[in-house]
Amino acid sequence: MSALLSIERVSKNYGPRIGCSDASFELWPGEVLAIVGESGSGKTTLLKCISGQMEPTSGKVRYSTRAGREVALDAMSEAERRFLIRTDWGFVHQDAREGLRMGVSAGANVGERLMAVGERHYGRIRSTALDWLGRVEIAGDRIDDSPWSYSGGMRQRLQIARNLVTAPRLIFMDEPTGGLDVSVQARLLDLLRGLVRRLGLAAVIVTHDLAVARLLSTRMMVMQGGRVIETGLTDQILEDPQQPYTQLLVSSVLQV
Amino acid sequence: MNVPAYNFAYLNEQTKRMIRRALLKAVAIPGYQVPFAAREMPMPLGWGTGGVQVTAAILTPEDTLKVIDQGADDTTNAVSIRRFFVKTAGVKTTEVTEEATIIQTRHRIPETPLTEKQTLVFQVPIPEPLRFLEPRETETRKMHALEEYGVMHVKLYEDIARFGEIATSYDYPALVNDRYVFDPSPIPKFDNPKLDNCPALQLFGAGREKRIYAIPPYTSVKSLDFEDYPFSIPRWEKPCEICGSRASYLDEIVTDDKGGRMFVCSDTDHCRKQKSAA
Question: For A243, B86, B157, B217, which has the most beta carbons within 10 A of its beta carbon?
C-alpha cells in the first residue's frame, strides 16, 4: 500500500513574500490530517497548492489513483487533472457560496458532478440527490429550493453532499465550520465525522479551531509564518505540545 | 454614372477575406466558435450585424437572396436587410425558399427542406451556450476545449425539476459532430431537428460577440436531453388558420383587444404555397 497523497517540499512565494515553504507530508487512505495555525500562517496557501487550485513555486505533489498508479499533479494534462479534481477529489470551501452553484436548485447542485461524469438519467440523478440530502440531514422537500433560501449550516451541508456524491477518495476542507454558530458547528462536525469514518475518506482539513482538529483528525500539522513547525498525532500534539507557539495555541483555547 | 459609393456588398475586400478565413476555419471545425474582427455595420448591434457580415462575405453577383425574420419575409428586419443588399450589391432577391441560394435568417429555419445548393446564414445574439451557467469566457473556452459539458445538463435538470419537462423552447443546446455543444441561435427547438444532417451549409454570425461558427452539410446535430426525458418538439392542437398546415411552426397573433387571436404559420412563404396548393 502506498500513500494516497505525498507532498514533497512544497513552497509557494507571492513575489518576495512567502506563502508557505518546504511543506512535506504523506496522507494515507482513510486518514484525516488537520493543518492548524493562526491567520496568515500559510494554511490555505498550502491547501490550494496541494489540491491543484494553485501552482506551487517549487515542490512536488503526487497522488496515487484508483488504478494504483502514482501521478505527479504537475505532469498531468489539464484535462486529466480537472477530471481527477471533479471525480476523485472534493473541495469544501469556507464560504459555501464559492463551492455551490447558487443560481440552481439544491438537487441540481448535488447532481452536477454526476452529470459531469456522464449520468444522463433524470430519475436516477434525482434519487441519488435525494439520498444525499438525507445523509446530510436536509429534508427531501427542500430539493427544488435555491441555496439562497438555505441557512448557513444547510448550505455548508449541501456543499458537502455535492462533493461526496461521486464517492471521492480524498476531500479538502478549508475552515468547514468557519462562520457558523457553535451549535450548528457541533452538528456539522458530528455529521462530518460520521461520513468520513463510514466512507473511509481521506481528508485534509485546514482550521484555526483546535476543537475541530481534535474531533475530526488523526494527525495534525501546526504552521506558523509559512513553515510547518510541528507534526504528530492529534492527541499527542494537543496533550503535549513541544514548540512554544503550539503551547501558546493550545493554552489559549477558552475553557468553559 | 457616378463611381459606386460602396464596394460590392458594402464590405471592403480585405474585410471579406478576413471573414472568409474565419468561415473556412469554422467549417473545418463544426460547432467551434471562431473569433473574427466584426466590423461596425450601418445598423445597430442586435439587428443582425453578424449575419449581414457573413452574407456580405459569401455573396456573389449571381446569388439570389432571401431574408426572413421570425419566418416572415415582410417584417422590418427582413425588409431592411434585403434592401441593404439590393442597394449595395444589386443582387436578385426572392421570397420563395426554393429559388434562393443564400437565405439569411433570424429565429427560424424555413419549412421547405433545403438543398445542397443553398446556404443558410443565421444571425446570432449570444453564441456561447455555457454563458448563463459560467460567465467567465476564459473558463467556457476551457470547458469547450476539454469537452466538459456536464453543466449543460444542469440547466435541463433545472427545467424538469421546476416545470416537469424540459421547458427550454428556443436556443436549445445541441451537440455538433459529437464534439462541440453549440447554441443554435434563438430558433425554436421545433427547428432543431432540421439542423441535423442538413444538405445545406449553415453559417452562424454573431456581430456583437465577434464569433463565427458553422455546420457543414450532412453533419450530425444532436439536441441534448435525458434518457428518461427525451428531446421532443412542440405540437399544436389546431392547424394554421390561413393555410390549414399541421406540420409547420405556428405563431400566435392577437387580432383585437377582446381576446381574439389566431394561430398562423410563422413561415410566410410556406403558408402562401400551402394556401395556393389547396
Answer: B157
Distance in Å, alpha carbon of A161 to nearest chain B alpha carbon: 16
* CA atoms of A206 and A36, how far apart (whole Å): 6
B85, B91, B93, B99: CA torsion to nearest 10? -130
Q: Examine residue A113 and state whether it is found in any structural domain, yes or no.
A: yes
Looking at the structure of chain A, the number of domains it has is: 1
Q: Which domain holds residue A152?
A: 100-167
> What's the pLDDT tens digit per position in B79-90?
999 999 999 999
Residue whose grid cell is 476551457: B142
Distance from the Cα of B46 to chain A's closest Cα (Å) equals 26
Helix (H, G, I), strand (E, B) or coil at A32: strand
Q: Is-contact A99 A91, C-beta < 8 A?
A: yes
- As a whole number of angstroms, the distance between CA B228 and CA B41 comes to 46
Residue A110 DSSP label: H
* B226 to A121: CB separation less than 8 angstroms, yes or no: yes
Nearest-angstrom CA–CA distance, B202 and B194: 11
Interface confidence (ipTM) of the complex: 0.84
The sign of the dihedral angle between the CA atoms of A108, A110, A112, A115 is negative
Candidate from B153, B228, B229 with C-beta closest to A115: B153
* pLDDT tens for each residue of B127-156: 999 998 889 999 999 999 999 998 999 999
A contacts of B229 (beta carbons < 8 Å): 122
Would residue A130 count as lying in a domain?
Answer: yes
Active site residue B198: no
In single-letter form, the type of residue at position B204 comes to F
Sign of the C-alpha dihedral computed for residues B130, B134, B140 and B142 taken in this order: negative
How much is the pTM?
Answer: 0.86
The verdict on residue A233 lying in a domain is no
Beta strands in chain B (DSSP E): 34-35, 64-69, 92-93, 102-106, 119-123, 174-176, 180-182, 201-206, 211-215, 221-223, 250-254, 261-265
Determine how β-strand A58-64 pairs with β-strand A227-233: unpaired
Q: Is residue A1 a part of any domain in this protein? A: no
